[in-house]
Every structure is written in structure tokens, then in C-alpha cells.
Amino acid sequence: xxRYTTDLQILNTELGKRYLSTVMPTTIxxxxxxxxxxxxxxxxxxxxxxYRYYNNAMLWWVIAKANSLVNGTITVKPGTKLLIPxxxx
Length: 89
Fold this sequence. Notes:
By secondary structure, the protein is an alpha+beta fold.
């Protein structure tokens, strides 16, 4: 699973330089029937949770997007309720 869509856009800067831009998926499917509820502990981080549940720390962004955690950090405040979505990969 990749956090970027396979569609690339060619964009131009104000100076006329062209570059490729990838697009983040807008939503992660979260179904409470197939999700795990996790309450963050003292040392929990999104990457460590991704490794625990998906065996891949690089999938931290799935948990972040599913829980609308877009503050630019992988740390989680202790006691935060997180939904860990099931991955269909």
C-alpha cells in the first residue's frame, strides 16, 4: 500500500518550471467492524503502532489519515483513542 495515488500531475511554477506532483488519497476506509480500537500509551508513536499492527512502520500514515491526525508529527498523546483500520493489501 502506498500513500500516494498512482496518478501524477504535471504542474508549473510561477517561473515556468515544470514538475511532477503526487496526490495524497483523500480518505482511508475505516469500518468500525473491521478496525481495532487502540488507546495510546505513554511511548506510543504512529510508526511503532504501524509496525505492531501491520508489521511495517512505513504505514504510519494510514493510522494518521484514519484518525485525522494531520499535525505533522508521529507522536500521539497518551490516552488518545485511535482506530487502526484493517488493510486490504
